[in-house]
């Protein structure tokens, strides 16, 4: 976790205080359920909750000090609780195993982290939608291979990103459901010393579903799917960030990240306005993606469990969610304040001498009866001259002077092939598909 | 693709013939839709389908030879079709771009590959269920950290795997839906020269959904999610394979892969019976996982598209699906024919002098009024003696001779703590959760 | 392995014939060494080599058929050899284990693959050097963050790539040394039934070094290092490919991949000239990188060995070397025939109204006694006006009209800050560092 | 960075204080070199060093506060320095770019981190050597596929690990040399405003080599190689950790991690002694490996540089080195204090009824004139009976009663095939190869 790439709410979720808080809730709710079936005296949960009602500060240092002796974190925590609650605390954790607490707590943290990330995605989607409608009909050149292809609109670019992040949102919801399970099943998951009703109660209290079958631990394919999903979202972050980095290139300059007053782009070159936020997002995407494989390697625990997954999750649990949270919020800010230059978009689009309309000519010739191969050759022949002139020649002019063209297409027919609105005919349809018929 | 790790059905799906077959269907269905709206004469699809009805052999070599000149695969294919269909073929592909064909074809292939993998998973689930019920109450030791913990049943191990692969099946269904989209939207996705109705028709014919917004290409976050899901399934394959490898260790030997007559385990050591199938599955899992990151890196294409994803998909499309298909079928065979040794399971379970019952003693002492800390110390003190005796001493005997124990627990109470059925009380409940109340 | 991304020499290295050829050599040389110390009769190697001298065709299908029964590849091969050599063949492989053959053969293949890759790198280095000197003083804009920074030369860009690939070459040499070891040490590496002298003899004959300590297998950290090194080289391939993709963008167009006559860039848009080779290289780099992690996961074999590494290596051994070989040769072709447009480089460089000289002004002001902060503010103030004018204003003019500037820098001093050769003063020095003082 | 998996020395290396300390050194040494050639007045470095000689506390919070405004870390640092040094500070950083400082500082940090890791490896190698010689002739069973193969010694296992980590050490030395370069070459690496002599001076002062050609940044293939090397070392850590985890399994129990008094293995099961350190090392290895791919993805920066690598390095720079440092030290402790149980090793070795000697019988029969195929069948036939008896039958007895055996091998000959020292004959030779002839 790098402070400069972190937001407080997500950081707090991974603090020791929050973790112990969740541990307490799990243990105390479990105690309630045990009391309900007579496993423990009713006085036990009463004592525990009564202490909790005093809102005791969680003394992380004290718990750490106990752990330094016991070398076991859950026992250390329970010992500290017992020091405060007294005698009745001995009923806590009966029939449970550490993983019941640890894994259920991790599920709570990952579910809450998901909620933050879902809210981040909602904000990003809102920004994308707003800017997409703003530029729904702002023409700009579509590029394949980095080469001018045919016109699109800037709104379409953002609508594509909206559709992509809406998919990411659905995937994250599925991933959240995958990890939001509760296991209170004892040493090897047999409920030998603690009945399933305890698990059901704790699950209900914490908004989780009971894990159908656990083996001391919640199976790690769930977590693998969760982190893999974060990796996919990171890929989409990189895609949109890369688009903006391209648009801000000196030669393109169709859009720019907002540049704050007082900001310095370069210690050496004062004129520089660099797409540093989206470059940063590209790097953050690499980090989140890099955590997918460790999570995948965590699945194959030995027998009912080994603890190799633990150190991995101590790092990637916070790091992946904190980094992606930061990235999504940063990306939302970039989109929200993005400086867009429609004039430059038009200027760039027109710099190729009308080559962007070449396909329409090709189709028109074909429909006029010329074979596909001949049509291709005719258009390419003229297109190459325009290309080599670097914008000095216009395709419309060359075609008008090419007898093999004019034999099939008159001046008006040719003019009609060089209009921009032709390319925007279906924008409404596409926006309806992405944003729904009522936007 | 390694022949020895491949199955014919999945291999055939990725052959050149199959690919060209799908390409033809896409182009011909699109032509139908174009004729329906008057874009092309009705004679065009008639001629094309009439030729197709002759069941022409697809001449891959001829198409490759054309591509060697044009350096463009779709144009090569269309040229070859035109050579056979004649004049009317010039209407094919009008207003379309290569990616309309390539990406939609890939969607068809990945959807069909998913269907094969889903069937594989069904077979695996059936085998796991059958063996799980067979060994529903076969006692065996549960192990955490590779160390004996408490008893479970062998059926529970398999039920866990069943639950895990059932989750994998759901994830794969979601991944299939994610990639099964059709894009026929032209050069930059604007439908400038081909209306959305063509896309809708082709999608319906091929069992796909229309891509809401494409940019020449279908967005690669879909494919990233697909391959990430295969990676998670591979992780689950590795987990179950690792379990079997452990069980077959010489010192454990609770289960063995089926050993065919005539099979040689080692060129040097004729007695060897090695878990080579599950070791192989471990390696295959690494391979499938290794394809996740390239798929994630494919998401951030430049602008409306670049073609960097193509070489990646040419390799991982076949390799990941073929390898996982092979792995799932191999794993099903391993489970189906697995040699299980219940006597050895019992012998192993009993070798620790009753230590596996230590937690129950701990709980009983606590409930009898001893503090948790004291109970832990008492049990651990005796447990350590048993541990160090390497099975020569029995925990039950030592406890019976420990005054701090007998002060709270009489002989009958102690005996009751050393029974096996205690650990099996909830097996029915768990099986109901995994397999449903009617199995 | 994808045929279209493969070259024959490297493919042949991984054929079944080559593999069996190497196996034979290992077994036969080992037999020589055994005969030399009297382990086997001298007649044995004589018979074996005599048969080999007849240059027998290796019947892969026959060997495969035997393997289908024995399920063991080395035994199948030896059985086939025995079928031809007769009685004396029974001395082959005595005291050896399959891995002695398999691992040593893999070492031979990886060493030969390295030799091909080293030759590829030599060719690439030669092309880079030639083009670097050709454009040693071709001015072009240096870009950080995709934004114009200060002038460099196109030769410097290529010299950087040369230095990078020269490092890659050194790393590959080290990686080659790491995997070029020979192990003939028996079932668990103890030489129990075969003395070290056999290993020494085979190693010498095959150009390998003896593995100091093996455990049936050659340790896989060696292979991990090898494939990790290929992954680093792939990263460098991607870097240079990305540079060219950027240079070929429509708005930049400072260089282009060579475009063959008859080549079609797009089925829909005849004018397109796309950087498809370097985009392809970007994808190939992802593939090679994706093989690093499986190789790293192969290191932790169980005890003296398990066979999980085998399936991984069957795939990534050929795939990584074949793909990287193809990529290096393709990249060499791209560099060799790259179309370079110096006029466009100059035009692009000058489009920013002299902003690229801003740092020199900043330094001059500082040296003239203005504080760094004030200098920065003065330059940035003028630079921003130029930036916003999109090239209409010239920085030199604005500075000449800024009293805070002219108070410190006269017209001649200002003019001197806007010269290009200033940036080329050290090109000779840098070239000497990269290519040596004599080029 | 997870505090529980961190050691202070390595953590301190990555602190803000250390970083600013190194930045100062770079800037001040560069100033010396500038003064030496008259670029700046001699009074400038004098003032700067004079202030430094007062050992000023580095006020990280103050620098951070400046950065919050300027959004540029190096400018923030220089501003803070200027606030203390006064007027003369304006000569600092002249002609330099931020990356000159950042990249050179990172090189210093990675070089120092390497030194710590090299010392860690030395300690690990020493522990491995000590324990290897201690158990040079402690017999234990060698296992392939987890199945008993033939005897080895426990010392050989440790010697193998020693050889592997010695290779890791060499690789790390090479990786250190790869990243220990200094670049002070200005905005785009042309030395336009700062001559190479400055770089040479700073490099010499900091123990680095000058980067032959930089492009504002030091090329990231160097860092990729560095982190890839750490990933390989992590793989070797996992291998040795996995070995120990296997040895500590309940059924094997040939070695155990040291178990501290007061340590609790399980909150539920007081008898548990778990290999938690080596399981933890397995997880830490996954983490370090997961950082390789982001480093590989960092290579392909755009043009002369983009800043996407920066966030990646801010995380993996500390995390990879801190985690690996911790892992190596932990592993050294495990080896150093490992509890080894030779009696159990012998007991396990003997539990298979002599099957571990089967290969020697096979060889003896072959040498006595039986065909390899027949020999194999004879041995396997008897071996299978022993195998199925689970140790009740002895291979020696069965062979002695098999007429096809006794026809070729008499009782004495058979007895001689079942001796242990046969397998230890070459241990001295192997130790010489690993540790040198004088140990």
Overview of the molecule:
Four copies of one chain form a homotetramer. Chain A is mainly alpha-helical. Chain A has two domains: 3-259 and 269-346, Fumarase C, Chain A, domain 2, CATH 1.20.200.10; 355-417, Fumarase/aspartase (C-terminal domain) (Ribonucleotide Reductase Protein R1, domain 1, Orthogonal Bundle), CATH 1.10.40.30. Chain A is 63% helix and 5% strand. Chain A has 19 helices and six strands. Chain A has helices spanning 8-13, 16-36, 43-53, 60-70, 73-85, 98-134, 154-179, 196-206, 221-248, 276-290, 292-297, 308-337, 342-350, 358-367, 372-389, 395-400, 403-406, 411-416, 427-435; strands at 139-144, 147-153, 181-182, 209-210, 255-256, 339-340. In chain A, strands 1-2 form a two-stranded antiparallel ribbon. In chain A, strands 3-4 form a two-stranded parallel ribbon. In chain A, helix 8 links the parallel strand 3 (181-182) and strand 4 (209-210). In chain A, helix 4 (60-70) packs across helix 5 (73-85), helix 7 runs antiparallel to helix 9 (221-248) and helix 9 (221-248) packs antiparallel against helix 10. The longest helix of chain A has 37 residues, at 98-134. At the C-D interface, helix 5, strand 1, strand 2, helix 7 and helix 9 of C face helix 5, strand 1, strand 2, helix 7 and helix 9 of D.
- The portion of residues forming beta strands of chain A comes to under 5%
Mean pLDDT of chain A: 94
Count of the domains of chain A: 2
Structural class of chain A: mainly alpha
- Fraction of residues in H or I helices of chain A: 55-70%
Give the largest interface: C-D, 97 and 97 residues
CATH top level label of the largest domain in chain A: Mainly Alpha
CATH topology of the largest domain in chain A: Fumarase C, Chain A, domain 2
Given the structure, what is the number of helices of chain A?
19
What is the distance, rounded to the nearest whole angstrom, between the alpha carbons of the first and last residues of chain A? Answer: 38 Å
| Main sheet summary of chain A | 2 strands, antiparallel
Report the uncertain regions of chain A.
none
Estimated radius of gyration of chain A:
30 Å
Which strand order does the major sheet of chain A show?
A: 1-2
CATH superfamily of the largest domain in chain A, called what?
Fumarase/aspartase (Central domain)
The CATH level-2 architecture of the largest domain in chain A is identified as: Up-down Bundle
